[in-house]
Amino acid sequence: MFGPNPKDKHPMNGFPQVCFIQNTVSNPNIIIGDYTYYDDPEDSEDFERNVLYHFPFVGDRLIIGEFCALARGVKFIMNGANHKMNGFSTYPFFAFQNGWEKVLPQPGELPYKGDTVVGNDAWIGYEAIIMPGVKIGDGAIGSI
Predict the structure, then answer these.
(1) Structural domain containing residue 50
(2) pLDDT tens digit sequence for 80-128
(3) Residue 98 within any structural domain of the chain
(4) How far apart are CA 30 and CA 37, in angstroms?
């Protein structure tokens, strides 16, 4: 017994809702271990749609270990969702440009929680939401 090939997108013949997502992710700041799968009957190959506010200029990474099971609708909220909280408003004026970009937060002014990391052999249940900078240990089980 050797198991499925970790380089196959769909390791279960005739069952495309399960996908080894390492083979579909193109963002270099999303790192997926071997045999980690995403189960979604709508589009298991488009896991990246579940990684929200992951802007390249922020530089944070989503790291998911080996042998993880991710259920349909799991969402990862990344550091780009954070708003400046030490000014007169939390409103992201700079994002709307047209002169407001002059108040662009300087490095270190936006809350930054670091990389989001899921250890090996973790199971994240249906529609769970993982916040920025969370570290989930090996063998963890979580859901909403």
Answers:
(1) 18-81+110-142
(2) 998 888 878 888 887 788 988 887 777 677 889 999 999 999 999 999 9
(3) no
(4) 14
Rg (CA), the chain: 17
Distance CA 43, CA 47 (A): 8
Catalytic residue, chosen from 83, 104, 109, 127, is 83
Domain CATH for 26: 2.160.10.10
Residue 54 known to be catalytic: no
Predicted structure pTM score: 0.89
Which pair of structure tokens corresponds to residue 3?
A: 């198991």
Provide the number of structural domains found in the chain: 1
Residue 97 within any structural domain of the chain: no
Alpha carbon dihedral 8, 14, 17, 18, in 10-degree steps, equals -40
For every residue of 22-71, DSSP letters joined together read GGT---TTEEE-TT-EEE-TTTTT-GGGGEES--TTT---EEE-TT-EE-
Contact 58, 79 (CB under 8 A): yes
Q: Is there a contact between 9 and 24 (Cβ–Cβ < 8 Å)?
A: yes
